[in-house]
Amino acid sequence: MRLALLALLAKGPAHGYELKQALESLFGSAYPQPNIGQIYVTLTRLEKSGLIQGEDVAQSGRPNKRTYTLTEAGHEAVAAWFEETSDEPRVRDEFFMKLALAPLTGAADQVGLINRQRRHYLNLMRSMTRLAAAEDRDNKVAQLLIEGAMLHLQADLDWLERCQEELE
Amino acid sequence: MRRNETSGEGTPGDMLVVEGLVKTHRTDGTEVRAVRGVDLRICPGEFVAVTGPSGAGKSTLLHLLGGLERPDSGRIWLGGRRVDILSEARWAALRRREVGVVFQFFNLVSTLTVADNIELPGLLAGHPPRRVRERRRELLTELGLEGKEDSTPAELAGGEQQRVALARALINRPAVLLADEPTGSLDSKGTREVLRMLSGYHQRGQTIVLVTHDANVASTADRVVTLHDGEIADDISFTDPPPTGQAAAHVVRLLG
User: Fold this and answer.
1) Half-sphere exposure of A29 (CA within 13 A, CB side)
2) Residue B28 within a domain
3) Does residue A78 share a domain with residue A143?
4) What residues does the Transcription regulator PadR C-terminal domain cover (chain A) (predicted)?
């Protein structure tokens, strides 16, 4: 969330609600709506660390709104973020741990585990298909996000198939 | 135990019933047991995807259901009628009227126009040419192929050729549509088109059995049967509506 907000502010000053809307329109229905409270908390923290600068703007008949501007340090942080390769783990797979440990514990059987997991993946795949159909065709970012999720699921299903072949 | 040979086993509403189906392929003295005892029951209007790794027996099962191959043992009922015991000629006649088949590589007749490809099974089934032509026009419209009737298959994109194959399979209003990897040789656009058409016919009540190795394709069906080593490993009916909203976040996490 931190860097996403900073990156959005690189375009120009904005207040919390505008940032929320920007994230929503970017990812469409493909991704959970960002929580406004969480956005305000993150903005306060970013301001404390000197990456953004807040300024209250008076509004007639309504409470002031606080508009944020990216500082020099903020610009550097965004540039550094784009510079570094993203090396987070691609898969965090608790299921595989269960599958590997099942025969040692005798607490679950592997075929049952595989079948249950396949159902879960197929259900996700199905909701993804519906999501893609419901989402605006022209929202390329949202469509690509859904397609990425589907390709990950396909890989998970292929892996599951391999597990079934090898472990049976 | 005496079995009812005409009305099929179990509930009379079943469209397709399969019991103890076994098929072994023999090539050069080696035996491959492609289908090893499959029981399956498909209701009218169901859209069933059969999936599994290559060599799991998916295509063989579909061929058995369409009478394109004969089982070594087991029984098949189509619309309450026992069909595995039919002669080749009677199967051919039945297939023409009751079963439509779509293949991965379209199998259109390259020397015939789109219109003739589609009409051919209708004429072979002995329907009046005028009615066949009307039905063909209707299908071309439904499948977004107006204006293509005089084209030859080679002049069409893959997705369009498969839609022509779909029209041909549906010309006689078959009870069951069988599709063997219908998107297997299509790009993503062609795949989307064909899946949209299949879903559309399903919504209008068409019973469909589709074989695919692609989970994305399988998830458009409302039931997924997974084959493994010629046996059914799992059989899932989706309970809709699924948890939609932002499901992508279950797989890909972008924001902390």
Assistant:
1) 15
2) yes
3) no
4) 91-168
Residue B8 lies in a domain: no
pLDDT-flagged residues of chain A (< 50): none
Give the Cα separation of A91 and A73 in Å (integer). 32
Contacts of A124 in chain B (CB under 8 A): 247, 250-251
B189-193: long-range pairs with CB below 8 Å, 24+: B189/B159, B190/B157, B190/B158, B190/B159, B190/B160, B190/B162, B191/B159, B191/B217, B193/B144, B193/B159, B193/B163
- Residue among B42, B18, B11, B6 at smallest CA distance from B175: B42
pLDDT of amino acid B240? 64
Domain around A14: 2-83
- For residue range A47-85, what is the model confidence (pLDDT) as tens digits? 999 999 999 988 888 888 899 999 999 999 999 999 998
Q: How far from B188 is each of B51, B158, B192, CA to CA, in Å?
A: 19, 11, 6
Among residues 60-79 of chain B, which lie with CB inside 8 Å of chain A? none
- Quick check: B190 and B183 in contact, CB under 8 A? yes
Q: Residue B70: give its domain's CATH number.
A: 3.40.50.300
Last residue of a domain, one of A83, A106, A132: A83
Q: Does residue A131 belong to the interface with chain B, where contact is any CB pair within 8 Å? A: yes
Q: How many CB atoms lie within 10 A of CB B240?
A: 10
Q: What is the pLDDT of residue B3?
A: 44
Chain A closest-CA separation from residue B110 CA (Å): 34
Query: Is residue B124 helix, strand or coil?
Result: helix
pLDDT digits (tens, 9 = 90+) for B57-80: 999 999 999 999 999 999 999 999
Domain shared by A69 and A107, yes or no: no
Q: What angle do CA B188, B194, B196 make, to 5 degrees?
A: 100
Span B2-11, average pLDDT: 47
Q: What is the pLDDT of residues B87-112, one digit of tens each?
A: 989 988 888 889 999 999 999 999 99
ipTM for the complex shown? 0.73
pLDDT digits (tens, 9 = 90+) for B133-166: 999 999 999 999 999 999 999 999 999 999 999 9
Select from A1, A124, A161 the Cβ nearest to the Cβ of B251.
Answer: A124
Are B130 and B119 in contact by the 8 Å Cβ rule? The answer is: no
Chain A: closest CA distance from residue B250 (Å):
8
The two three-digit tokens of residue B241, written as one number? 């509506």
Phi, psi for residue A80 in degrees, rounded to 5: -65, -35
Residues A79 and A106 in one domain: no
B254 min Cα distance to partner chain A (Å): 8
Give the integer Cα–Cα distance in Å for A113 and A121.
12
